[in-house]
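Final report, closing paragraph on structural work. Over the funding period we assembled a curated collection of sequence-structure pairs, and we close with a single example.
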Amino acid sequence: MAPEPSSTSSAITLHVNGEQHRLTVDHRTTLLDALRECLDLTGTKKGCDQGQCGACTVLVDQRRVVSCLSLAVAAEGREVTTIEGMADGDDLHPVQQAFLDLDGYQCGYCTPGQICSAVALIEEHAAGWPSAVTPDVGPDTAPAPLTPDEIRERLSGNLCRCGAYVPIVQAVARAAETHAQSRTRAEEAAA
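Its predicted structure, as stored:
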C-alpha cells in the first residue's frame, strides 16, 4: 500500500505496459526513477540523466519520451510502454527481432531506448511525418522513403557508445519493411 501523500508528494496511477500501478511519489520524481525504483522495471536505462543520450527513451501514448526529463506525475493517466512491454508474450516485437537478427546492439545498454525510439519512428514515418532530411514536404508529395539517412536523422537522439550504428540502421529498416508489409496485408484483408 502506498504511503499517504504529503505537501510535496502525490498519489498517482501509472499505466505501464498495460497494467495500473498506484504510487505515491515526490513531485520531483522523474518517470525514469519511478519506473526503475518504484516499479522495478530496470530495462529502461539511466545514461546521462540530462536528456542527451536517449538510453531512457520510453513511449508515452505511443510517442517517444526521454523519461529522465519527464516527471512521473505528468504521466498519470497516460499509457507508458517500456522495453518490458514491447514483446507479445514470447513473441518479440518486430523491432526487437530485427535488432537480434542483425546484431543491432553491442553492450546492450542503449538498446532498450533505441528499440523504443525505433518503434515510434516507424509509426511516425508511416503517418507521413517529415524529418529534418525529408527532401520535400509539400501537400502533393508522396511520403519519403525510409532511407538510411532518414533513419539516422530520426534516431539522432539515441546515442550508442559502442558505435553499433550500421546494424541499428539495418535493423530499423528491416522492421519498417515488416511493418509496411503487415499494414498492406491488413488493408487488403479489410477491403
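The CA atoms of residues 3 and 24 lie 6 Å apart. The longest strand covers residues 9-16. We thank the funder for supporting this effort.
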